[in-house]
């Protein structure tokens, strides 16, 4: 028998209906720790809880992935626009490595070919930068990430000092 997951306390709107009274279709491994850490660290405080709740279901996560193309909820205290001259894989990799990025990363993207993949950072940047899709490249969970929307020149390095 599949595990039964009750709606989180205070769940409202579509989230509550996603769970239903005895929602049992949510795989227990839907939420990736890197993704949760990104939304807890780099999204506007008033919206963090909602995003984390959405990550808990396949349908909610899909909504988030679709929204990455035009995502406007970054906490700008921790996300800095990459200078236009540096908006390429080589320079962005250099910036991320200087801030502590390792060889591997996790990608959440509106592009199905990239979404949910753990991959080498250099490859992830080559495939996301200028690719026309919204993407989060998590380098150090909750501490360092790269974000790009499909809109031109909207490329950010998100960093929180530990």
Label this structure with key terms:
162 residues, alpha+beta, six-stranded antiparallel beta sheet, 6 helices, 17% strand
What does this structure look like?
The chain is of the alpha+beta class. It is built from six helices and six strands; from the N terminus they run ααααβαββαβββ. The protein has a six-stranded antiparallel β-sheet with strand order 1-6-5-4-2-3, sandwiched between helices. Strand 2 (104-109) and strand 3 form a beta hairpin. Helix 3 (45-55) crosses helix 4 and helix 5 (89-98) crosses helix 6 (121-128). The protein is globular and about 35 Å long. The model is unreliable at 1-29 (pLDDT under 50).
Question: Helices and strands in order, then pairings?
Answer:
Elements: H1 13-19, H2 33-42, H3 45-55, H4 58-67, E1 79-81, H5 89-98, E2 104-109, E3 118-120, H6 121-128, E4 135-140, E5 144-148, E6 155-159
Antiparallel strand pairs: 1-6, 2-3, 2-4, 4-5, 5-6
Helix pairs in contact: 2-3, 3-4, 5-6
Shape: globular
| Poorly predicted runs | 1-29
Number of domains: 1
Q: What proportion of the residues form beta strands (DSSP E)?
A: 15-25%
**SSE string:** HHHHEHEEHEEE
N-to-C CA distance: 42 Å
Spatial strand order of the main sheet: 1-6-5-4-2-3
Arithmetic mean pLDDT:
84
Structural class: alpha+beta
- Sheet with most strands: 6 strands, antiparallel
